[in-house]
């Protein structure tokens, strides 16, 4: 500590001294968190950590959300760290798998975001955390701007358990635009040689939305949003849900559903939401993080988004995850669904982890407050049960075949094999069949709430599984019966006119249209500009 | 806003102007949060609100955790507010019931804490919030000291949705000991005429613990904590769980369980935890709030509690609730349990609400990370199921008869009548039978995980319900069979020697003993001092 103080001018440490700073504050075996989430990464500090002397610093236990950068795995390769508790690995999943197989990484457990944050306040409190912010002043006050994300959880756990908090910042300033983290919680700040890197991962180009996706979106709006009166919800980030967002101002508006559905969302500021916001459909959005290019547009809609007095957004993954968990509905896509409705995005040879989907995509059994949607879904679920209870809607939206003509519906999830290969305690299931209420495909909607037992659930799934082997093996008599009682609904049962399912229904058909809707405030990254 | 600015010297408003300030910032129909939680209340601001002109301010929609003070209901009596969304009403339950019956309060819904906070970030964002803190500086930086509690959730939602945040503080100082809420999030601060009131609600005098409670505590330790290896948990606040805490250093230590069970807790700093902390049983505690008299002791154990650089505790209900939700076990007491295992603390004529128990006492279906306890409980629950899953332990600990010789076990919960009287959408159930895994009475433990169906569950409950009518109506043959397969366990089945169940087993037998264990640092409130 003495040594680290000598490196610092007050709280400010020069970028060139970052490696030395880490060597002086870290003890072998320390628990360490490197901030890494969807938008921002403490990338400079992560790279610095990978360069410390492994004689001095070794055996670290890494507890962090997102393993995304090569440096995150370099620390294991070099023996600086050997234990890992995390949420999500994304592009590093393959390399992580190899390092685990080689015994260089011992994985404690794979978490969803809220679980890992919870353990920061229990048995996995970091002793040292490396975080990222937009700006700091000399007193260590941090400005995280639009991308607050995981910072509050990491900072609070570390700072209040006598830990050391080191922040890399894009710039050191005289006065921060607003204080997101009070300076007296922060140990050191380092101005990084370049700003932390951000990837526009929530941007979907409307030009790539297909008519099949539009058809599914129409079914979702009539068969689920309208039926239950869904007002508070969370959307996944695929093209399927982008299609729903883009037909709210057209299809849903014609059905008279403005002010009736989709008013409050817990999502990142996806550009495809702009037309629904501008046409008064979506009234409030709380975000886990930001999205590149959306800053000015978001700042201009303080009536919809959460904005600080400095005029920029405040995100916070904890509150976004919580609001989504207690919302009326989650809808997202997946890679595989089995005959019980269990779904998984696990791919062989990779350890990808969970992120936030299982939290959004599970029953909120601690919930007690009613809403129209929750109570109505509860009634469907409760048939014959003595003690009534509400129910969250958890919807999977998939095409029956995914890329490469792999069937989405399978007898057995790859997750089982993955469990074997990586010696996991359970197969890595993203959403469990008994948490899922609806599955939507281009063929129709299976309502699992209306299935009396596992065999009916299986047939309801087969009944919407199209020409996949699972779909072809349906029992036609049972499927007809399920359709009669509403456990299966095809477009014609929902009053959905398939002929309308074309791209004219999209409120925006290109990124340029989105810019137009935003009044020029949305500034898409270059890669999305083709004009 | 112009008018309110004129009342303020910078951000500071005189206490005498509090009513005028509220009249100037509030618009009819505004959504308003008055901070009120277990420990601290914005009591001065609540009283000021009750005094505003109802000609100027009326039709407010109150969105707050805890209705505890007469002033909280005066605002409805006076027509200043007419809508309410809340969590818990406690001592005001009876009066609230009357006001609802008279149509002066329209209740939106009754929530658990996390749900209501979630809605602050969705459809129930307050436009004005009245909060309480220990100290403020002229810039509005707030120091919440040990009792941070709900403040971060309220503050973040209000400040970042262009709302107005008014803090009452015990004192205005030149420099706050640490910054808990950054000043630029705060609109106004008012020094209250007297400090906010705190009630020592988590203090249980060991002198009142009975031998029956000690017997139940022994069964919990052998039959549940040891069996599953429970390391992360949440305790309720009754004498039953205090008894468990007080025999950790004696009974559990003799069983060799130090370092094996009860290492990490999410609870308030209950004084009865002191011996377990001092004897090295409990290693880490994160608190939702503080407890009167525990301040110095807690500050001295920065290795166990979360402590700021100013040397006092940092509490935060959100993280404590989350850590408890994702822990391995919750154990708490209740007033009534029915034959399905549904439990309720509802009492006729009162609307008491939920607080945090349903969140702690429900399955965490979004959880994905394994632990010994969670996986082992999952195996018991999964028998015969295709897709394995872990399981949280949710334990109810009750004596078969409660005060007034009312049986705890009933055929039908009073909650059903309450639903009728107050026109609630569902009966107010605290923990649902299918979330509960174990019920512990003085007769034994029912393990609901090992029951194959509802009829077995009913007999397992009857089998530990003693001499209540429910217990007397047991089917002895079924009960014997359930005992054979471990779904019922009596003390002798658990290796619990009933003769040891006496007060000699308590590590502390009085408040004075607790003070002694704490090395004189615990300073109990006067009412608990009888020496």
TrEMBL record, chains A, B:
UniProt cross-references to InterPro entries, sorted A to Z: MadA, NagB/RpiA_transferase-like
Pfam families per record: Mal_decarbox_Al
This enzyme's EC code(s): 2.3.1.187
GO molecular function: acyltransferase activity
Top-level EC class: transferase
Keywords noted in UniProt: Acyltransferase, Transferase
NCBIfam families tied to this protein: mdcA (TIGR01110)
Name under which the protein is recorded: Malonate decarboxylase alpha subunit
